[in-house]
Amino acid sequence: MNTNAAQQTNEDLHRPVSYARTSDDVNGFLKLPFIFRDKSKQQPAPASNWSIPAPGTHSYVEACDIGSVYAIHFAQYLKDNPDMVGGNGLGHIAKYIDFSDEDQKGYWVGFFSVLGELIAMGADRVDLMAHLQRRQND
User: Fold this and answer.
1) Among 43, 46, 24, which residue's Cα sits nearest to residue 35?
2) Which domain covers residue 36, as residue numbers?
3) What pLDDT score was predicted for residue 1?
């Protein structure tokens, strides 16, 4: 958890963002609101792919709402970077989530709940078994 995440306002989180790669920003993943990299290098701070506000900053319901918005940002990142789909970005995020920490629970519940909704919406548009066969034949 870091202070940068706590400083994000509700307005910031709901602002449309493009995660498409540009010549000066090779990795749109680092723009996601829950990704933290210490740019100051003034103090040793570990990088994190799940950096959320400090404990007690939000109620459980508020944390769920923020996690939901984080999921939308991650989905937009994948939409803007189709070559990253299947690149285990979600695994790189989940690796940093402490599922045993009750203070984090709302954020990841909201995050994974919305991802589940988005997967179901996409699955409605695809012949899933045909997709599986194509993947296995590649």
Assistant:
1) 46
2) 3-137
3) 46
pLDDT band at residue 66 under the 50/70/90 scheme:
very high
User: Which residue in this structure is represented by tokens 């570990």?
Assistant: 46
Q: How far apart are CA 17 and CA 15, in angstroms?
A: 6
The amino acid occupying position 131 is: H
What is the SS3 assignment for 2-61? CHHHHHCCHHHHCCCCCCCCCCCCCCHHHHCCCCECCCCCCCCCCCECCCCCCCCCCCHH
Counted domains in the chain: 1
Q: Model-level pTM?
A: 0.82
Radius of gyration for the chain, computed over Cα atoms and rounded to the nearest angstrom: 16
Structure tokens at 38: 């210490």
What mean pLDDT, rounded, does the chain reach? Answer: 86
Q: What is d(CA 121, CA 138) in angstroms, rounded to the nearest whole number?
A: 25
